[in-house]
Structures are given as C-alpha cells and as structure tokens.
Design a protein that fits this description.
two-stranded antiparallel sheet, 5-stranded antiparallel beta sheet, alpha+beta
C-alpha cells in the first residue's frame, strides 16, 4: 500500500499507467453494477406485470367462483345437471394480458419485448396452476385458499461482456390468492 502511495505522489509521471488502470477498473465495476441493476429492474417489471396479469385474469373469471363467503371460503365450483358440485377452474389468457401490459410481440413460442429494434427480453413457457378451495370443508380455519401460481421463463441478453456471456435465464414465480375482505 505504501508503494502505491509513493507511486501516486511521484512527480515523474510513472503513476499514469496505474491511474489509467484504476480508472479502467472503476469503469468496469460501474458497468457491471449498472448491468446488474438493469437485470433486476427488468425482472421486477416482468414479475409485477405477470402478477397483475394473473390477478386480472382471475378477476375477469369471477363468475366461475362459487360465492361461499357465508361459509367462510370461496372456490371454483358449479352445480351440475345431476345436482352435484363440480370443480370449475379457468386459467384465462394470461399471455394476452401480459402482451398488452408489456407491449410484447409474439414470435413462435416466445413473447418478445423489443426496444430500438433490438430484443430487450423474451418470455416463454408460461404455466398457470390453480389451487381450488375444498368444497364444504369441516374445519375452515386451516383450509387451503383459492390460489393461482404462475411460472414463466425470462431470458435477457446481457449488454455486458461484448456478447461473450450467455443471456440471463431465470424462472419467475408469482403467487396470487383470494382473501375475503370481511
């Protein structure tokens, strides 16, 4: 450390390569931090949009839910012609809602966000799982609530590393559940 201080205080100009190396290192660290922040912002935006899309689709399909608020639970059931309660769940069209929220274009199995003619990120393999509430449970305190789980794969090409690094590929999970207000 004292050698570095001595080099920095030297007036002969020998510290110029060291100063350049320090500046280049700081630029590299700042670039990596900026790329990390960009990836975090994209992932959070996609996660929030996916959650909004799942909630929106679940809300639009409210007519399928049996209103069991009087009994303390709600689930997706309908009364069949044979007077039996049957489970009825509809996953809706989450991709269409996501496309409208994020401005995505469809290419094959991918839903792609482009900015300035270049791909910013792409989404694929959407999977929505609905967990229905049991019909007429005997104990309503520990009953599974009506929930929707959504999984999607997010791929973001890195702008760091001169296109030598593989794209970020992560599986995002979103959980939305019904909670009665009263």
């Amino acid at each position: 450390m004292t050698k570095v201080r001595r080099l920095l205080k030297e007036k002969k100009g020998n510290a110029l390569p060291l100063a350049c190396a320090i500046v280049m290192s700081l630029i590299l660290i700042f670039s990596a931090a900026s790329e990390y922040m960009r990836l975090q912002i994209i992932a959070k935006g996609v996660r929030d949009a996916l959650q909004t899309a799942v909630i929106s689709v679940a809300t639009e399909n409210y007519d399928n839910l049996y209103n069991g608020l009087r009994e303390g639970y709600s689930g997706g059931y309908y009364l069949s012609d044979s007077d039996q309660w049957q489970s009825q769940l509809d996953t809706g069209d989450v991709y269409t809602e996501l496309d409208s929220l994020l401005g995505l274009e469809t290419e094959g199995i991918y839903h792609i966000k482009t900015t300035g003619g270049e791909m910013e990120f792409r989404l694929s393999n959407l999977n929505v799982n609905l967990k229905n509430t049991p019909f007429a449970p005997s104990n309503i305190e520990n009953v599974q609530r009506f929930e929707a789980e959504a999984f999607i794969i997010l791929e973001v090409p890195l702008s760091f590393g001169w296109n030598k690094l593989p794209p970020l590929k992560t599986n995002l999970k979103v959980l939305a559940g019904y909670t009665s207000k009263f």
